Amino acid sequence: MKSSLKKSLYVGLAAASVFGAAGLASTTASAKSYAYVTKALYFNTAPESRNVVPTGSNALYSKVGTSKGARVVASKTTMARLGNSNRSNDYFRAYSIVSTNRGSVYYKVVSFDGHYRGWIYGGKDKTKFGGGIASTNTTSSAALPSTTTGYTLTNPSKWTLWNNPKYTQYKASKVTGFSNTDTFTITGAETKTREGWVYYQVKDDQNPSITGWVYNLGVQAPQGNSVKISYVDKDTGKEVGTGSVPFDKSATYTNVTTTSNLNSIVNGVPSGYVPYDNNNGGSASLANKDNAAVAKNGDTLVYYVKAAATDTTKAIKVVLVDKDGNAINLKSNDQAALDAAGAKAAFQVKAGDTISAQDVQNILADANLTDLISNSGSSYRFASASNTPTTTNDNGATITVRATYNLIAY
Fold first, then answer.
1. For position 156, what pLDDT does the model report?
2. Fold of 139-220
3. Cα gap 156→183, rounded to integer Å
4. CA-to-CA distance for 228 and 389, rounded, in angstroms?
5. Rounded-to-integer distance, Cα 303 and Cα 244, Å
6. pLDDT-derived band at 75, boundaries 50, 70, 90
7. Residue ranges covered by each domain of the chain
C-alpha cells in the first residue's frame, strides 16, 4: 500500500489541451507584464508518489500565480496551517504541471478532502517538488499483532474497510462486497503519519478477492482470547472506559507491553482522557507491568489515565540539532512522524507548566526517532534535551523545543 517517494519526477510534453484545461494564458501582447505558460507537462509516476504537503511559502492560486487573472484560493497562512495539520485529509495530491516563460514550475494540486484545488509555485526544477510543496509519506510501517487470523469486525457502521487507510490517499474509498459476519486475516499494518492511528490490511476469509484496510479497533481476534483493559482515572479511582487486547487462542499468555499492544491500548484511551504517564511508550501507565508481561486470557489490567486539560499547548515542535547546534534535516516521512507525535494530546502540557526533557524524549520515542538517519544519510542517536518552561499565555500555542543528537556515522 505504501509507495516510496522517488527523488525525481519524470515529466514530458503533454497534449496542447492541457493549456485550456488549466485556464492559463498563452503568449499574447499582455505577456510583457504577466508570466505565461510555455510548456504543459505530464507526470509519468504513480499517483501515490505525488502526495505532497504545503510548505507555507507560497499561496494557492486559481491560475499560475503570476499570470493575468490569477486569484488567491488559499493564502500562505492557510497553506502553512494545512501543512502543519494533524489531519490526513489536509494532505494534497499533485496532478498537473506546467512551466512558464520565466523558468518557474507550477503544479496543480488538490487536497485529499477536495476542499482546496488550484495552482502553486513549485520552484525552478521540474524534476522534484519545491517552492510551495514538499513530498511526504502519509503512512509508515507498523507491527502486526501476535494473532493474525480469525478476526471479525467490531462495528462495521463506524469502522469499515477502505481501499487505503482513510484519507491517506486522494479519493480513498470504502470497500464493499463483504458480509459483516465474515472472518478476516490480517496481512499488513500501517500507521497514519499525522494521527498516529494504526490500520490493518485484511483479507476476507470467505471472499479472498476482497481486501481492505480497517482501523485497528474495528477488528477483534477470535472471542475468548483477549485481555481486558480497564481505563481508570487515577485521580478519582473511577473506571472511565474499557478495551481489550486480543491474542492467539493457542497461546497461554500474551505480553501486553509490546509496542503493537501498547499502541492499541493508547489509541483506545477514552475521549477526554490521556495516559497518566507517557514514559516507556505509555507502559508506565500500567498499574502492574509485571502482570501485563504475562497476561492470560480473561485477565483484567488497569491502565491509568487522567482528564485531558483544556488550557494546554497545541503542539510541541521538536527541533533536532547536533552537539554543535547545527540543525539536523530529517527525511520527509520522519519529519511528518515527529510533527504528528508532537501534536498528540497525550504529550501536551498545561500552559504555565514545564515541558520536561523526559516529555521531549517521549515524543521522539513515539515518532521512532531515538535513532535516525538524516536526509543526508548520516546516522544519529538521541543524547539529551532540556526543560522548557511555558507561560499561561501559551494556551493553544505551538512551543518549540530542542533535542540534541550525537553523530554515529556519516
1. 93
2. SH3 type barrels. (2.30.30)
3. 13
4. 38
5. 11
6. very high
7. 11-135, 139-220, 227-307, 315-409
| pTM, 2 dp | 0.54
Dump pLDDT digits (tens) for 278-332.
888 789 999 999 999 999 988 999 999 999 888 899 999 999 999 999 999 999 8
The 10s digit of each residue's pLDDT in 180-206 is 989 899 999 999 999 989 999 999 988
